[in-house]
Amino acid sequence: EAQVTQNPRYLITVTGKKLTVTCSQNMNHEYMSWYRQDPGLGLRQIYYSMNVEVTDKGDVPEGYKVSRKEKRNFPLILESPSPNQTSLYFCASSLSNGGEQYFGPGTRLTVT
Amino acid sequence: GENVEQHPSTLSVQEGDSAVIKCTYSDSASNYFPWYKQELGKRPQLIIDIRSNVGEKKDQRIAVTLNKTAKHFSLHITETQPEDSAVYFCAAYETGTASKLTFGTGTRLQVTL
């Protein structure tokens, strides 16, 4: 089954404790991105990747890191999480630049 | 960068009525405009999209119109049904040099019986 998976789905952590949210797709998509969703602000792009080893900042990259060592994986790293990073996070992939984005199920992160 | 404004933020219609959601964008280079539907607790899913070389596109009860000159595009849902209740997001994208997909802030559509 073609899909985008994220783990964990729910995470409660404390300020400053490094964490990684994994994202994997099995559709051989080149383009992957991370979004955060906050009430009233819609979906805001954090980082995106056009291909392996090619990543770039979206609109809200501060406090986040990503890597794209393999085509299928695009982990989101929070080196020192803060409460303002409490949010719902979505990973997405698409076959090409400008194509339909397939979203993962979301990760609800709470930083206390 | 691109800025996408979406209105209204909430919309309540009676079953069978039409619903219209409007978006404006700022970057004239944007050339791809998708619409995503997000049901409660679910992930966003593409429902329709339009490219800048087309003025209108229809898919059953859903249609999207694009006015490049005015830099606005709209989602039209006819004969609304309770299952249309969801949050709808518009987005704008420049497929040339940039790869950032900019979303609107969303419209919560409630279809009442």
Topology, pairings included?
The complex is a heterodimer of chains A (112) and B (113).
Chain A lengths: L3 E4 L2 E4 L5 E7 L5 E8 L3 E10 L2 E4 L7 E2 L9 E3 L8 E8 L7 E2 L3 E5 L1
Parallel strand pairs in A: 2-11
Antiparallel strand pairs in A: 1-3, 3-8, 4-5, 4-9, 5-6, 7-8, 9-10, 9-11
Chain B lengths: L3 E4 L2 E5 L4 E7 L6 E7 L6 E7 L4 E4 L2 E6 L4 E6 L8 E8 L7 E3 L3 E6 L1
Parallel strand pairs in B: 2-11
Antiparallel strand pairs in B: 1-3, 3-8, 4-5, 4-9, 6-7, 7-8, 9-10, 9-11
Characterization of the model:
The complex is a heterodimer of chains A (112) and B (113). Chain A is built from no helices and eleven strands. Chain A is an all-beta fold and 112 residues long. In chain A, a hairpin with a 3-residue loop joins strand 4 and strand 5 (42-51). In chain A, the strands form two sheets. In chain A, strands 2, 4, 5, 6, 9, 10 and 11 form a seven-stranded mixed beta sheet that branches. A four-stranded antiparallel beta sheet of chain A has the order 1-3-8-7, with no helix packed on it. Helices cover 0% and strands 51% of the residues of chain A. Chain A is globular, with a radius of gyration of 13 Å. Chain A starts with a strand and ends with a strand. With 113 residues, chain B is an all-beta fold. Chain B contains no helices and eleven strands. Chain B has strands at 4-7, 10-14, 19-25, 32-38, 45-51, 56-59, 62-67, 72-77, 86-93, 101-103, 107-112. In chain B, strands 2, 4, 5, 9, 10 and 11 form a six-stranded mixed beta sheet that branches. Chain B is globular and about 45 Å long. The relative contact order of chain B is 0.35. The chains are: A mainly beta (112), B mainly beta (113).
